[in-house]
Structure to design on (143 residues):
């Protein structure tokens, strides 16, 4: 991604702050979950196709399966990186597999829809007991 694309992603992501958490939601200000906020942000910035939509999915799919469904979806659109830049994806492991993500604002700060907070929030991973030890890795979108 170019620096301008990264700035656009961060700017768009911030417009989703305080949107309530809602499983499978994708409406800014109304309700969204962690995967759909990323999809809607990247779509708004023209970085992924409009037809990307993993729904339907259950809220606890990651607790009962070992298939890396979430990770495979990210890998279809992005490549792993060692050092995240603004606009990149941070992935987290809950349950048996990768099942949560956020958009990097400036590492270690991410923006994400987090059920624990009930909304889209900014989180400093270095200060988060809920996420800090669950980090799986980082990805950057192909363009």
């Amino acid at each position: 991604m170019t620096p301008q694309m990264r700035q656009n992603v961060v700017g768009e992501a911030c417009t989703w702050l305080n949107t309530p958490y809602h499983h499978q939601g994708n409406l800014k200000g109304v309700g969204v979950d962690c995967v759909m906020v990323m999809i809607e942000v990247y779509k708004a910035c023209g970085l992924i196709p409009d037809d990307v939509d993993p729904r339907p999915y259950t809220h606890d799919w990651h607790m009962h399966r070992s298939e890396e469904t979430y990770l495979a979806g990210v890998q279809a659109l992005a490549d792993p990186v060692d050092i995240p830049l603004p606009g990149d994806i941070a992935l987290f492991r809950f349950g048996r597999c990768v099942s949560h993500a956020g958009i990097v604002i400036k590492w270690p700060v991410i923006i994400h829809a987090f059920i624990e907070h009930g909304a889209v929030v900014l989180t400093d991973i270095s200060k988060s007991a809920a996420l800090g030890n669950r980090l799986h890795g980082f990805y950057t979108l192909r363009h």
